[in-house]
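chain below, 94 aa
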Amino acid sequence: MATTTDAATNALGYEQARDELIEVVRRLEAGGTTLEESLALWERGEELSKVCRRWLEGARARLDAALASEESEEAAEAVAGAAGGGSEGSEEQA
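prediction:
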């Protein structure tokens, strides 16, 4: 069951999640926290990492779709050009 915190975390933009993750890592590396605080930071870092991963996977999917669309258009243009190229040549000779 998703909590309000989970929903808020999932609503974060990529840059927000990344910046908070950087801060979490900085605090963990600096030390000086209790075991309980360290575990809470680690758990938050895991949540933020998942948010960043989802954003990056979504961006990759959009790029792949755009590239596939572009390749399809280029292939269609090449086929149309090849089909049209033969008729243009015969019109020029006439």
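The mean pLDDT is 86. The radius of gyration is 26 Å.
thats it, cya
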